Amino acid sequence: MPTAQKEAIVKEYGGKLSDAKSLLLADFTGMDVATATALRANLRKGGVEYRVLKNTLLRLACSQSGMEALSPYLEGPTAIAYSVDDEVAPARLLVEFAKLHERPVLKAGVIGERLYTKEELIRLAGLPPRDVLLAQVIGTIVAPLSSFLGAVDALLSSPATLADALERKQGS
User: Fold this and answer.
1) For residues 123-136, b (16+ Cβ closer than 10 Å) or e, as one string?
2) C or N terminus of the chain, fewer CB within 10 Å?
3) Is 86 in the same domain as 140?
4) With bands split at pLDDT 50, 70 and 90, how would you rate the model's confidence at 1?
5) Which residues lie closer than 8 Å to 37 by C-beta, 6 or more apart?
6) Are 28 and 105 part of one and the same domain?
7) ω before 72 within 30° of 0 (cis)?
8) Number of compact structural domains in the chain
9) What's the rounded mean pLDDT across residues 75-79?
């Protein structure tokens, strides 16, 4: 491949990786074409981009985008999966796919500015989606407030209930 094409690839992916909220590296060794095609389709549905690049070009693109921490993991066959929308989607989709097909194998990833190991990415992929986590947090905040309001309502309504009971008793 001519040098101009390589420079264009590095520049293109350096920009794409700079915009990415998360970037994961995976070893795709042993995947047949049908499995790789199924993986690409699955990731595309989830808004995740998947690409195989030469490690030297990927190393240059990572350094250009500030993700130099991934350089030690750029050994052997390496694919990248990244998302500009969801931080956890690449990890979740790759881990779910790997459970069914035993491939690809995660190497490492960067989410935000932090480097995550394979084990950390697998744990992260097991978390519920962002909307569910937000609903749980809101539920945790609202539950004590609703209990408190119920207690206040009971205190405020008890004098009225007592007055009503006394009135009925005196009326009989």
Assistant:
1) ebbeeeeeeeeeee
2) C
3) no
4) low
5) none
6) yes
7) no
8) 2
9) 86
